[in-house]
Amino acid sequence: xxxxxxxxxxxKTAGLSQAGSxxxxxxxxxxxxxxSIPHSIQYRGQTAFITTSxxxxxxxxxAEKINLLFVGPHFDHDVVSVLSIGDETFASTGGxxxxxxxxxxxxxxxxxxxxxxxxxxxxxxxxxxxxxxNTVVIWDRNTRELFTEIEFERESFAVTALVHPSTYVNKIxxxxxxxxxxxxxxxxxxxxxEFKTMGSGxxxxx
Length: 206
Prior knowledge:
There is one protein chain. By secondary structure, this protein is mainly β. It is built from one helix and 16 strands. Strands 1-2-3-4 form a four-stranded antiparallel sheet, with no helix packed on it. It has a four-stranded antiparallel sheet with strand order 5-6-7-8, with no helix packed on it.
């Protein structure tokens, strides 16, 4: 009996040695639960939250510990863009922009029937996106209604990126695959200025 107990203790010790220390044991890798779709980062107080697209849904994480906080609903189509504002997550999927709160579907922004909507961006009380047919679509975030649309000719100005400079009132900067940028007033829907081409296409602006 004593021999069997001693053998059991030895086998248990050997198993612990093979397992190694748990001090540096992997916990979770962000790359395993994200796609090629750009993530959205939001700061609330001292805490940062990361929203990532994972095919037909999305995840919301606490950035400090990479804790999974919320899982979005399962959509019929892949999520092509995500945007986090306050308690709400805006997910573009199947040509629609769905509004979710704490992982639960709440409503949709007014439909525009322009194909997929990419590059969701916040601009004050507005949500902006680039449609598949080369249009900048702007919604009112509070009413969920369409605010305005700015159409472009793809041959001369194929929209690839947009940004709202913090000190520009009612103005956004739109980049193109032709390498040019335009400053637009979204209230008057007027192009105020066009920058000369940079010699290559613009893929991102911050």
